[in-house]
Amino acid sequence: MSTLLVVKNLVKRFESGGGWLGGPVQIVRAVNDVSFTVERGQSIGLVGESGCGKSTVARTLLRLIEPNEGSLRFDGVDIRTATGSRLRALRRRMQIVFQDPYASLNPRRTVRQALTEPLIVHKVGDSKAIAKKVEQAIEEVGLPQSALDRFPHEFSGGQRQRIGIARALVLDPEIIVADEPVSALDVSVQAQILQLLERLKRDRGLSFVFVSHDLGVVRHFCDTVCVMYLGRIIEQGPTSQVLDRPLHPYSRILRDSSPVPDPRARISLTKILGEIPAPTNLPSGCTFHPRCARAKPECSTRLPPLQEMGASRSVACFFPLVDDVMSQLNPSHTAA
Predict the structure, then answer these.
(1) SS3 for 117?
(2) For residue range 275-329, what is the model confidence (pLDDT) as tens digits?
(3) Are 311 and 241 in contact (CB under 8 A)?
(4) String of DSSP letters for 21-41
(5) Rg of the chain over CA atoms, in angstroms?
(6) What distance, in Å, lies between the first and last C-alpha atoms of the chain?
(7) Distance between CA atoms of residues 4 and 220, nearest Å
(8) Predicted structure pTM score
(9) Quick check: 118 and 172 in contact, CB under 8 A?
(10) pLDDT over 70 for what percent of the chain?
């Protein structure tokens, strides 16, 4: 596999307060020094609690939100410096599926109009070629061609999300940013949409940046996963390894908090302290240390870098759960 997308030291800050209402201006540090790569045909998951910055990362990749710092390169092209026709050409190759299928479609436009618009904007073929491409896209997502002349309010949530996926597909992208694409859907419909995305990934060779708070969905769909906390990636690696044998205390808490569809399963929850700090007033050192049962004085004074732990794992923790992982791999192992 070759590298398709490279994100390096991405930073996004927002200003809060001030203006007509007065008060001090505060800086919300939504994304802090995020780096990862996406290979062709690979799906990478961004997981974490609400407010951790995963959706902000997703939107900055397509410059729906402008980043403050960092490098974004798609197939060797600098996304941040691209303008005009060059940026338009990049966006044709990078598409997004939004979380809310009810809000992402214009209620006054038919499905045909919604799917035709991207092709007209990017000047893809004549009217006959555009009509054929729209018909192919709607069939590919499992809807009949009769759906093209109906309005969004005539469809269920799952059907609307299929339309949103078809709109992303008409331009034949190479990567799709999926921002919580199934969280607003019923569980049975979630499974159908995930199966659709998995088939599209296989048949079209698509890459995905998949944002979700549902670890079960991420385990099913993503090859690798990045765990985020307060704007930073605190652990990344192959999905099964990170979720089965987490190295960061927060990753374990996140894993243990995820429901297990087995009534016989017994989960021992890891102790967690306090509330999530405000992003306008981040703690010194490791941002997780006020809530971490394993925290030591060093954790409050220095920020742990994201360091490699083997060939495919990285973790930002001075005291990772290495002994716990080893004991799972080898029950006879005991810490020194």
Answers:
(1) helix
(2) 888 888 889 999 999 999 889 999 999 999 999 998 789 999 999 988 655 444 4
(3) no
(4) G-S--EEEEEEEEEEEEEETT
(5) 22
(6) 40
(7) 22
(8) 0.89
(9) no
(10) 91
